[in-house]
Amino acid sequence: MTARGRGAGGSSPDAPSEDEERAVEQALALVAHLPHDAHRPPDPVPERAGGTTPGAPPSSTTPFSPSTSPTVAPGRRVHAHRTRAMPWDRARDLASRAGRASPVAALRLPLDRALGHVLAEPLGALTDLPSFDTSAMDGWAVAGPGPWTCEEGEGILAGRRAHDPLPDGGAVRIATGARVPADATAVIRSEHAHADEAKGLLYAQREVVPGQDIRPRGQECRSGEQLLPVGTLVTPAVLGLAAAAGYDALAAVARPVVEVFVLGDELLTSGLPHDGLIRDALGPMLGPWLRAMGAEVSGPRRLGDDAEALRHALTTSRADLIITTGGTAAGPVDHVHPVLAEVGAELLVDGVAVRPGHPMLLAELPSDGPYLVGLPGNPLAAVSGLLTLAEPLLGGIAGRPSQEPYQALVHADVHGHPLDTRLVPVVHRAGPAGGRDHVAPLHYNGPAMLRGVAAADGLAVVPPGGVRSGTEVEILDLPWAPATPWTEGCFT
What we know:
Elements: H1 18-32, E1 71-73, E2 76-77, H2 80-84, E3 86-87, H3 88-100, E4 106-110, E5 118-119, E6 123-124, E7 134-135, E8 139-142, E9 148-150, E10 170-174, E11 186-189, E12 193-196, E13 201-204, E14 214-215, E15 226-228, H4 236-244, E16 249-253, E17 257-262, E18 267-268, E19 278-279, H5 282-292, E20 296-297, E21 301-302, H6 307-316, E22 321-325, H7 336-343, E23 346-350, E24 352-355, E25 361-364, E26 371-375, H8 379-398, E27 406-409, E28 421-429, E29 438-441, H9 451-454, E30 458-462, E31 472-477
Helix pairs in contact: 3-8, 6-7
């Protein structure tokens, strides 16, 4: 979704172009001999109740006061974005801390509804596993040394009552999962035993070791033992373990509720672009993407370029997080900043030093209202905002542990921005025989393009200045990225 000033960085005909802005920024950095963020005030530490942080400068809690930009030439100023922009890694960390500062809403869910949630309580075993000595194989339960006298009948089946104690020198057929009778010393697999029916004797064809093929009671865990900690993502395997340990329901963290407000009068919901109108690419994309991040998301609300509609939507929302698309720059119909100021929101992040997506923002509405992540309108820039601010924020609210960053070898030089982090779609590739796996950057990675990220399974975090082929870069996995061999996986 590319629109008038939506995430494009400029909003008026006489505003400097991106190339001009970049040149100004480089010149200022060279003159100052300092990083471009050296004189920024400390990041505000978010408090869900909207309080101020002890020791924080007044400017950190008055985010809508006009910022001053250094004058570089008559009629030219560095964009306010540059004076406010927060380093990419600090913005992600702040978003995560903001989410973790939210009160945890826990609920008890039956197992068939708990998938994808996060445990709100440790998972402790309600019984020993296994709860009795169990046969690990189909075969014969025997007591003492052989040969053994065979007991007649169908033997011991799984799910049946306890068998009488086995006398010394006795043998009885047993099925996998069945309760081993008292005094049995081993289980002999069917293929390792020979039954002489004429004599009624059982012979072992291999050495019999005491305890073989018996799963002893409590082998996996004892009653009361912690199996999984708080914050564990409930996967299918976790559901199976919980059921085996005796659970019918799990204490889980409620999924964050998210509303998506699509801004822009120029957007079509169907058909081909025409007469200056374009298709909305973000409305269809954001809901599934946010659900993959563990959120409950309703259908997008289309508000157009209506400041009053936006104000009403913000002040009546009952969501944990509001996502807006476009309107984060300073054009004539970019209403996000003015409306946030009007309703008294606290702006926690106002611009991030990342390309694409630098006009993204994070705010908290007053009176314990929801958080708001303002995404630029260009599609890939919006993806950048989603991964930079929304993902860590939602992970914090949902109690999910942060994904450990990892790095991968990159094949091909990747150009960088002179001052900002750059996010570039990449795809994982298997290395040649004996070589390392690596990532390859994809084309069509401009801020208005989705073609590259549609084929990607991750975004490379390219530092200012770029990286050379053969070096390592940090990777942000996309929710549908393959789990191996590069990561431990991500369940959605």
